[in-house]
Amino acid sequence: MAVYDCNRAESRAEGLTAAAGAVRSSRLVVLPTDTVYGIGADAFDAEAVRGLLRAKHRGPDMPVGVLVGSWSTVDGLVLGVSSQAKALIEAFWPGDLSIVLPHAPSLQWDLGATRGTVMLRMPLHPVALELLRDVGPMAVSSANISGRSPAATIDEAQEQFGTTVSVYLDGGPSGEPVPSSIVDLTGSEPVLLREGSVSAEAVSEVLGVPVTANS
């Protein structure tokens, strides 16, 4: 287990190299995002993703979302980027909006019981983006054991996961632990599954149709 202070240039570079090596070796990393800290693994490494779920004491019935480092990455992960998805990506990425889309059937991954869908987000955090652009899409969930509060600091993440995680990237306190909003575009109408930092009104304005939170 190693912790790297990403607020110092030298330590940040070392940490990103170590984190990339860990991801490529089927190990887990904790990384800062623009919401709370996340625990992540290679999205295409099924055993690593299962390890992530075990670390959180969570089953496959609660699948893991995927973080990407660029807009263009999405094209290879989904069945198609609809005009609605494109509008939301252009308006809110990188940022606090997760989008659920049908995933490309050719992909060999196992994120849990996704029922043929994937939840995608591009985070607005330089450390996360640099790692994602190096290793590719990562399965990432909030850094907490199921039922506990998501980690807002690297110390809180370490306290929960200890040596289960190989590399911790410390980006400082995450601020208010407001979750991302989640929009489901897999049906005939968009559905706001979770209203977080992006409001229903903001989503509705971009899509040009009323969108209400799923109750």
Explain how this protein is built:
- By secondary structure, the chain is an alpha/beta fold.
- It has one domain: DHBP synthase (Alpha-Beta Complex), CATH 3.90.870.10.
- The protein is built from six helices and ten strands, in the order βαββαβαββαβαβββα.
- It has helices spanning 9-24, 46-55, 83-92, 126-135, 154-161, 200-207, and strands at 2-5, 29-31, 38-42, 65-67, 97-102, 117-121, 138-142, 167-170, 181-184, 191-194.
- A ten-stranded mixed β-sheet has the order 1-8-2-3-7-4-6-5-9-10, with helices on both faces.
- A hairpin with a 6-residue loop joins strand 9 (181-184) and strand 10 (191-194).
- Helix 1 (9-24) runs parallel beside helix 4 (126-135).
- The longest helix has 16 residues, at 9-24.
- The radius of gyration is 16 Å and the shape is globular.
- The chain starts with a strand and ends in an 8-residue tail after the last helix.
Strand elements, count: 10
Task: Report the major sheet.
Answer: 10 strands, mixed
End-to-end span in angstroms?
A: 41 Å
CATH topology: DHBP synthase
